[in-house]
Amino acid sequence: MSRKPTTTELLTLVQEIIVPLAAVERTMVMPFNLERHENVAEHSYMLATVACALAEQLAGTLDIGKVAQFALVHDQVEIYAGDTTVWASKAALQDKKAKEAAAAQKIAEQTQTFPWVHRTITTYERQDCPESCFVYALDKILPHILILIGNHHPVQPTWEDYLKTEEIALKKIASYPELLPYFQELCDLFRQNPHFFSSKKKD
């Protein structure tokens, strides 16, 4: 039987591993306030809720408990690695994997009393079960949904630049093909909203 954590250890877990997620801003803005950026804690909660609701209806074989756990920790490493978006520089995208691996190791060292945290991150990152693949794919779809709800693209890329990211997302979503029809319909809706895009190439 594992040792019961102390109150001090519980406080440390919340202070060092959970609360910091709310301080990591993402590129995405909130549909109800286009001036406020979404943070990773909000993103993880939204992804977990959507994932559980959709998993039950989409595929009865998915373990919703696993889906929820993976969604909650899928971006945990960003408390140290930060959020590297698809719009980041080439150098930042190349560094992403190494930064996140180092962050995962740091989290593992900090959460030895709570092994569920690192164990779940590691299992998710392996991408070797339907639940992790489902969460990974849905994570690439959620931003499109928020942009459509808010009727605003926070980056306003050129159409050409957007198409590059769409192609990248399609390859990633293919890890759980059942989600591809949703993404394709969302992309069709993007094509009906030219104000999402800029006619000028950004520097």
What is the topology, as strand order, of the major beta sheet? 1-2
* CATH fold name: Hypothetical protein af1432
Supply the CATH class: Mainly Alpha
Taking the sheet with the most strands, its summary is: 2 strands, antiparallel
* CATH H level, superfamily name: Hypothetical protein af1432
Radius of gyration: 18 Å
| Average residue pLDDT | 93
- Euclidean distance between termini CA atoms: 57 Å
User: DSSP helix count?
Assistant: 9
From the coordinates shown, what is the CATH architecture?
Orthogonal Bundle
What is the ordering of alpha helices and beta strands? HEEHHHHHHHH
Task: Count the beta strands.
Answer: 2
What is the fold's blueprint, element by element?
Blueprint lengths: L6 H12 L6 E6 L2 E7 H19 L5 H10 L4 H4 L8 H21 L5 H11 L3 H21 L8 H15 L6 H12 L12
Antiparallel strand pairs: 1-2
Helix pairs in contact: 2-3, 2-7, 3-7, 5-6, 7-9
Would you give an account of this structure?
The protein is mostly helical and 203 residues long. The protein has a single domain, classed as Orthogonal Bundle (Hypothetical protein af1432). Helix content is 62%, strand content 6%. It has helices spanning 7-18, 40-58, 64-73, 78-81, 90-110, 116-126, 130-150, 159-173, 180-191; strands at 25-30, 33-39. Strands 1-2 form a two-stranded antiparallel sheet. Helix 2 packs across helix 7. The protein is globular, with a radius of gyration of 18 Å. 26% of the residues are buried.
